[in-house]
Amino acid sequence: MDLRAIAAVAEDLVRSQWEVFRAGHGVALARHKQDGSPVTDTDVRIERFLHAHLAEATGIPVVGEESIGCVESRTQEIEELHREVGTRSYWVVDPIDGTSNYLRGDPSCAILAALFVNDTPLIGVTSLPVRSTTITSVAGQSMTVTVGANRVELPAGGWGTPGEGVGLIDSLVPGFRDEVTHMVDALIAAPKPRMRISGCVGANLGLVAVAGVGTTVSMSPHVWDNGAGVCHLTTRGAHVTDLHGNPWTVGSDGVIGGDQKTAGVLSASLQRIGR
């Protein structure tokens, strides 16, 4: 399996949906799913496209948030995922991560895709169409960041050593790293059962991974929210666990990724409130 070639195909297919995504940004109308979360016609259109074309181009089955998202428990969610794909390799996609942001015209919203092999994410694609930015990682090999016409390759490993990624993030989303640091510090001091950084889990995990420094958290329990970001973080050498400090799995209730010491303190803090 040539992961770099597969990642390039996935990135191209995701980027081909930018205009569809942008056309509904800030103007799309939403209806609500059984769990109360919003969904738009754009979600459905992009997921159907990726379901058909990503599977055809790579020979690997695809499941998405809109096809497995309305279940009653985390166990059922993972059972449904495995029932849908029935193989050891599968794609999980989220056609619009950060739907509430998308509906109100906030640029922090993304298309996410992650390739899992034996339930481990080996390719992650986080694409932010409104920011003309795509983050693509191949586990243990490299990360590429494309902003407009500029494409930068960042090395695998080396977490905690400031490099080119810090400058990329500070220019793309000024103040983002300070916001993440403040949120993590606040959670350590006064843990809460739910907290959102940017309103878009995929953007949060991906942008912190690009920076290659700091620590972040996702309190989403959903594999489609976290898969691409976990791949980005592990590729860049971050310490990645669930909210309890255990190794992350597709059934985890969230993600902590970054500096090992800070991640441990944050995990201990969250466990005080039963997370």
Automatic annotation (TrEMBL):
MF (Gene Ontology): inositol monophosphate 1-phosphatase activity; metal ion binding
InterPro entries (UniProt xref): Inositol_monoP_metal-BS, Inositol_monophosphatase-like
Metal-binding in keyword set: yes
Entries under Pfam families matching the protein: Inositol_P
UniProt keywords, alphabetically: Hydrolase, Magnesium, Metal-binding
Obligatory cofactor(s): Mg(2+)
Positions with a binding annotation for Mg(2+): 65, 94, 96-97, 225
GO biological process: inositol metabolic process; signal transduction
Protein known as: Inositol monophosphatase
Organism: Corynebacterium pyruviciproducens ATCC BAA-1742
